[in-house]
Q: What sequence folds into this?
């Protein structure tokens, strides 16, 4: 059994199994992936658990180990934000949630923040403003490409992006671990629906609300990210109140793999101070 499996649990949400990685006991910190899966948070779970927190890195519907299947309609940021809240309620988290988003998971987190559903907010190399979707993602808005792409095709299409995202952590074994869920046709279809639904208006339209937000916010950013470049984080930190930016040197789009300690430590300190949701599950 892999460490990934040892830390994994499931609950039922909307009649389908929602799979998540977790560790520890204490206030829940929801961790939202984007175009990868919950595996991005595995290297830092123990850091948060050691701080008295319960990190919960969920696979969105149709992703990773979760059941269900996304469509372009159900893969929008508002729909997924609503699903995340239903998942949180199943876990026993009532009231505002503490949340961290990576990649497009950052758009879901921002939507929840703007809706007043968050008590502590963090991004790890998340999308902001009009920084997304990247061309590799946006091209899946073409129905003809989606119809012509099998799971096997998608694994190979995504291989280069995963290698680039992992940067110096990109061993053959780790790349395969990140790609493995996409080999399932249902997951591949969900991923392509998620990509097709990607739309930067979901972050751009939130900016007036975010600029008025006083909730504590933390950005932890791999400085060498070729996709969500650090200047986006700098702008967010300058424009959105109560935001702190922590830079991670020599780290790319998935800095949890390049330098887990440099990502996990500031997140653990931040959420230990600010997370206050009850954990009843």
A:
């Amino acid at each position: 059994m892999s460490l990934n499996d040892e830390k994994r649990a499931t609950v039922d949400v909307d009649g389908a199994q929602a799979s998540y990685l977790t560790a520890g006991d204490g206030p829940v910190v929801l961790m939202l992936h984007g175009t990868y899966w919950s595996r991005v948070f595995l290297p830092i779970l123990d850091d948060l658990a050691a701080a008295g927190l319960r990190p919960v890195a969920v696979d969105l519907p149709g992703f990773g180990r979760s059941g269900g299947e996304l469509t372009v309609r159900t893969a929008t940021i508002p729909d997924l934000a609503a699903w995340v809240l239903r998942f949180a309620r199943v876990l026993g988290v009532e009231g505002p949630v503490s949340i961290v988003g990576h990649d497009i998971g950052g758009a879901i987190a921002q939507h929840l923040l703007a809706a007043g559903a968050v008590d502590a907010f963090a991004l790890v190399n998340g999308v902001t403003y009009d920084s997304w979707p990247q061309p590799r993602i946006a091209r899946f808005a073409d129905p003809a490409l989606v119809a012509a792409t099998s799971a096997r095709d998608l694994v190979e299409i995504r291989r280069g992006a995963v290698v680039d995202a992992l940067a110096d952590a990109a061993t053959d074994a780790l790349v395969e671990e990140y790609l493995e869920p996409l080999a399932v046709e249902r997951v591949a279809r969900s991923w392509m629906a998620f990509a097709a639904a990607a739309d930067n208006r979901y972050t751009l339209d939130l900016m007036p609300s975010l600029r008025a937000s006083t909730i504590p916010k933390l950005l932890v950013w791999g400085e060498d990210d070729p996709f969500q470049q650090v200047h986006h984080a700098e702008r967010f930190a300058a424009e959105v109140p109560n935001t702190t930016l922590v830079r991670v040197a020599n780290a790319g789009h998935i800095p949890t793999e390049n330098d887990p300690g440099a990502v996990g430590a500031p997140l653990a300190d931040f959420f230990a101070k600010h997370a206050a949701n009850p954990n009843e599950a």
